[in-house]
Amino acid sequence: MQDTAIQEIQGAETLEALQAVKTKYVGKSGLVTKELGSLGKLPPEERKACGAEINVVRAAIQAALDEKESALKRAALDAKLASEAIDVTLPGLPLPAGGLHPISRVLDDLIGIYRQMGYAVIEGPEVEEEHYNFEALNVPWYHPARDLQDTFWLEDGRLLRTHTSPMQIRYMVDHEPPFKIVVRGKVYRYEATDATHEAMFHQLEGLVVGDGISMSDLKGTIAEMARGLYGASAKARFQPSYYPFVEPGADFAVYWENPRGESKWLELGGCGMVHPNVFKAVDDLREAAGKDRVYEGKTGFAFGLGLERIAMLKYGIPDIRYFYANDPRVIGQFRGEL
Ligand code: FA5
Q1: Quick one: which of 27, 161, 234, 314 has the most CB atoms within 10 Å?
Q2: Phi and psi (nearest 5°) for 215?
Q3: Which burial class, exposed, middle or buried, applies to 142 when counting CB atoms under 10 A from its CB (0-12, 13-18, 19+)?
Q4: Residue-wise over 5-21: b if at least 16 C-beta within 10 A, else e?
């Protein structure tokens, strides 16, 4: 019996199988236990020798059981350790690095500059009502300025906004002065593209309204932006220009210098003092919506600039169409730069 038991013990491949063998031989009603129990039926002179013999067998079986049990436990632990092993000396897998688009980076810079000056940053719809994009901005349908911004029209009579200026109207209808906001976003124009013109580009619009806001506030703000973008020695320049929603109106340029000693005037956008007709159009819309007319007698300035120009110069990108062609040779140069 001892030999068969030991064979079965050694053949057990799992702890459960081993437990079954243990029960079979040395359990409460196991074979060895039963043998011991039947000693009483033997004649007294045989009992002692027979008992000693069974005890030897039981001890041998028990020893084999113990040994097998620890061997199985060790094997289980080894397998677990092997399956969970991490080789910390292996080189890591490279993570594909992304990067911010140059336009996002220029936008972040500008937003930072305006936040520091206390401006709120807002966005607005790219699909816009004709009234907000043109009429309320003092551009009636017959006005020649409409030709300056050729428009993508939607079948329902709405349009893709040609500039961020309609958000001036939307914001003023919903808010009372004083306030300082910048509007960020995409605008669309139905025009032939070339190295400096795209059909979709980005604008940043500023609007400040309150009591006694003047043209010198506007000039100081643009000069502050120039310094924020290009350092303490940067300058801003204003030249009279025409936009129907401002009076007087101007184009502004920033004098730009880089560490390589290159410098030039960069035409950035348009600006001016909010036209009284714009305030009137806003008050009309407010009145129609059951709100107070609060813009009469207020003054304010507005400006709007294109972001692509700044980015082209900053990163030496010669053609605006590179920004949105998704050519990895262009975009890849900004990988890892945040
Ligand atoms: C406007 O869009 C006015 N809304 C700006 C403004 C706001 C004036 C508030 C006064 C008060 P303009 O059409 O000039 O103006 O466009 C402004 C800037 O957008 C331009 O200076 C230029 O930098 C950029 N821009 C215009 N058209 C394109 C285009 N097709 N591709 C890329 N950038 C453009």
Answers
A1: 161
A2: -60, -30
A3: exposed
A4: bbebbeebeeeeebeeb
C-alpha of residue 204 to centroid of ligand 1, in Å: 9
Instruction: Kindly report, residue by residue over 198-207, the tens digit of the pLDDT.
Output: 999 999 999 9
Mean pLDDT, the chain, rounded, equals 90
Cα–chain center distance at 259: 32
Amino acid present at 105? R
Collapsing DSSP to helix, strand or coil, 50 comes out as helix
**Cβ–Cβ contacts within 10 Å for residue 47, how many?**
13
Q: Give the residues surrounding ligand 1 with Cβ less than 6 Å away.
A: 149, 163, 165, 189, 191, 197-198, 201, 203, 205, 243, 246, 249, 269-272, 302-306, 308-309, 320
Å from CA of 334 to ligand 1 middle: 26
Interface pTM, i.e. ipTM: 0.99
Q: In whole angstroms, what is the distance from residue 207 CA to residue 131 CA?
A: 19
pTM over 0.95: no
Counting other chains too, the contacts that 249-255 makes at CB distance below 8 Å and 24 or more residues apart are 252/222, 252/303, 252/305, 254/222, 254/225, 254/226, 254/229, 254/230, 255/226, 255/230
